[in-house]
Amino acid sequence: MRAVAAxxxxxxxxxxxxxxxxxxxxxxxxxxxxxAMRSPADEAATQRLIEAAGLNRNVAFIVYDGDLKGPTEAxxxxxxxxxxxxxxxxxxxxxxxxxQYDWVSCSARxxxxxxxxxxxxxxxxxxxxxxxxxxxxxxxxxxxxxVSRFRPYRENARWQVGDTIFIGLNVPGGNNHYxxxxxxxxxxxxxxxxxxxxxxxxxEYARRRGARAIVIFTQGDPDPxxxxxxxxxxxxxxxxxxxxxxxxxxxxxxxxLAETFHGPVVVIHEDDGHPAGGFQIDQPLRNDKxxxxxxxxxxxxxxxxxxxxxxxxxxDMARQPPFRVSVRDVPKDLPLPQPPALVPGGDSAPPxxxxxxxxxxxxxxxxxxxxxxxxxxxxxxxxxxGGNTTHPGYTVPPPSGTGTVP
Length: 406
Fold this sequence. Notes:
Keywords: Signal. Residues 1-23 form the signal peptide. The chain contains seven helices and 16 strands. It is α/β, with parallel strands linked by helices. The chain has a single domain (2-344, 379-403), classed as Purple Acid Phosphatase, chain A, domain 2, CATH 3.60.21. It has a seven-stranded mixed beta sheet with strand order 1-16-13-12-2-3-4, with helices on one face. A hairpin with a 2-residue loop joins β6 and β7. It is globular and about 55 Å long.
């Protein structure tokens, strides 16, 4: 087992000493996967990866954090249908967050030369058509599209487990689809406004519900080390400027959220590099005054083997520190599954269900039904897995590397 040097992140960061009484004794985990499927040959292995992540009965949900296809695969309806069928095999709830190769890079010749905005609309009609998650155990979600002002943004979702609010946000790689061509950068500008709204009201919702922390999932790496302060006199500087940062507004929204919501804010995204141990935990974002944002933490992940490893975050409110991040491995004896059956109907997209008219006021609606967190599982000393739960026939392997959040 490889130990990962990381400051005491989740425990101190999430301020768990003042946890509400209803969280006492609660234990759950969630898994994060990204970029596993890059060719048809990866589909069976990814299905096995998802199955392995669900072997632990304490896993409340899985997040597939973008890139369900490779950069050279065509962004066809048939491919989307096959990949959706793979994600639907998850035993726990599965939330999909769109990434760069899913729509931004679809204009490339190798990807079929599609219109990225049209492909994003297609994803919204299929992957995000329901008010629940994917997977065999459905999790009710609140989608931003329930606010009439932001009806197109079905991919932006919110859910809650315990005292933590989770947010899935469409902030893809590829510089957040910021285009340098002349004219109005319409898709980018409109989505930036929608994302800022969703973050702002996530903070408001968390305060009203007495939540302890907010966790945000994006596929794109916003490069938080690079943060440009507002410059009132930028128009006077005639020197050639650096490439425009497509994540600038997103990072400013994060700073604003961290200033208004005084609990911890955690951002989880795929890492463009190769962090030691499969993930990196730090606090690199600074505000306009240059001060480090102390209650905002970033977890950047990139497992060494994308088809055999995933990231798992374990929460145990009775433990200090109660949150731990680790890399998990697929059991060596877990066979490749049979491909999932596709839903009949070819490439025809199911219609988007009618959404109720909701006021565009800041009060974002809550899910229609509650979600029962998975029951706490006692440690299984017979497996030698340090408290990991088991599944009939297979043992959840010990983590390859672990870390805690500062």
